[in-house]
Amino acid sequence: EVQLVESGGGLVQPGGSLRLSCAASGLTVSRNDMSWVRQAPGKGLEWVSSILYGGATFYAESVEGRFTLSADNAENTLYLQMNGLKTEDTAVYYCAIGDRWTIEQRGRGAQVTVSA
User: What is the 8-class DSSP label of residue 86?
Assistant: First the structure.
């Protein structure tokens, strides 16, 4: 059974940083296209970033230069380092299998709240 478990969310002030983790089981992160997506209150699912099989990373324009996606293959874990957080980054963040166009499965999510 494939499981994706996010952690690391929380409350942070504008300009602050958080690092989200996604512990994967039942699949090998390095052999799959993996993504982070988010859902803000009252809005639909928004693609944030992807790391493709082979290691190429891609970011939404709204987070480019502030967020960094990485993978620890030994730990089979995906990370999203978020710096320079803005109030508009407030959302539930999901780790997912797939790329920006096709999401096959996602975890239960981690709440990120950016507020003064």
Answer: -
Q: Which amino acid is at 54?
A: G
pLDDT digits (tens, 9 = 90+) for 82-111: 999 999 999 999 999 999 999 999 999 999
pLDDT digits (tens, 9 = 90+) for 8-63: 999 999 999 999 999 999 999 999 999 999 999 999 999 999 999 989 999 999 99
Q: Return d(Cα 84, Cα 89) in angstroms, integer.
A: 10
Instruction: Please name the residues in contact with 101: beta carbons below 8 A apart, sequence gap of 6 or more.
Output: none
Show the beta-strand stretches assigned E in 1-116: 3-7, 10-12, 18-25, 34-39, 45-51, 57-59, 67-72, 77-82, 91-98, 103-106, 110-114
Distance between CA atoms of residues 110 and 91, nearest Å: 8
